[in-house]
Amino acid sequence: MYIINYLICVTLLHVIFSKKTKSLLFLLQSTQELRKYSNF
């Protein structure tokens, strides 16, 4: 649970500080990783 919350905070900060298409791609990748972790 802590790992998921940490990743969410990092992604949000990344999106806020860098409003670019790369940030959106990073967010999509992070959500996919979160889904993988949630499966476990």
Would you write up a description of this structure?
The chain is mostly helical. Helix content is 88%, strand content 0%. It has helices at residues 2-17, 21-39. Helix 1 (2-17) packs antiparallel against helix 2. The chain is flat, with a radius of gyration of 10 Å.
Write the layout of secondary structure elements.
Elements: H1 2-17, H2 21-39
Helix pairs in contact: 1-2
Protein traits:
40 residues, mainly alpha, 2 helices
Brief rundown of the structure:
The chain is mainly α and 40 residues long. It has helices at residues 2-17, 21-39.
Distance between the termini: 11 Å
Strand residue content: under 5%
Quick one: how many beta strands?
A: 0
What's the domain count?
Answer: 1
Count, helices: 2
Q: Decide which structural class fits the backbone.
A: mainly alpha
User: How many whole angstroms does the radius of gyration measure?
Assistant: 10 Å
Order of helices and strands: HH
Helical amount among residues, as a percent range?
A: over 70%
> What are the segments in which pLDDT stays under 50 over at least 5 consecutive residues?
none
- Describe the main β-sheet briefly: none
The oligomeric state is single chain
General shape: flat
Average predicted local confidence, pLDDT: 77
